[in-house]
Each structure stands twice: as structure tokens, then as C-alpha cells.
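Class, discuss our next protein.
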Amino acid sequence: MIVRILGIDYGRRRLGLALSDEGGILASPLDVYSRRKLDQDLAFLTHLIEEREVKKIVLGLPLNMNGSLGEMAQEVLAFAAALHEASSLPVDTFDERLTSVEAERVLVQANLSRKRRKAQCDSLAAVLILQGYLDSLRD
């Protein structure tokens, strides 16, 4: 069964995007979307979902280090609900604690300039979120 999953690293200014392969095994970076108004963000994402034949969405959930929900996690949950309503697709969340830190570390090790790291950090964080989610499905 072909199941393509969209991974999203949520941010107030940008959304990092990643897409799984058709078998749901491997996550690949897509792009970084610069946010506008919520309705425009949802229109962009629903178009992308149709274009890429996405069947499920995974949003990184930024839990506090103690596992509790903070302000940003509440914002992500509200965005997840709006995205589910707009797309009619299942929207799962996945604990993204430290994925942005890990993405930055990987990009520093790759010797990318600060400017290039900033441009790629959000999409790499989305890849890490989605790959973690895909791996958890096989455990």
C-alpha cells in the first residue's frame, strides 16, 4: 500500500517540510515555507498535499524537557486541528524535543556557512521528525 506522509517542523515564521517515500520508509527534505496568514498557509499545504498525494501528516510537537505541553506545543496542537479540518487527513504529532538542535549540529559538521545552515535547518528538522516517526512505526 502506498502511503506518503508529510512531515512538518512548525515555526511561527517558517514551516520546514519533508516527505516520505511511497513505502513510508525514508524521509526526504522538501522545502521551507515562509508563513503568511493561517488561511494562506493552509491553502499552500492542502495544494501540496494534493500534488504529492499525501495520505497522512506528522507535525513535530515541541514538548518541554519534562514532557509537559508549553505555549508552543499548544500552538502546534491548534495548527494540527486546523490542518486536519482543511485537509481531512489524519494529523499525528511526534515529540520533536532537540530535533532543531540535532539539525544544527549536523549542518555545522557539514561545514555549511551560518547563512546556509539557517536556510536548511528547518527542512532538516522536518526530516528528523518524519524519520523518527517512520522508525517508530516499525518498532
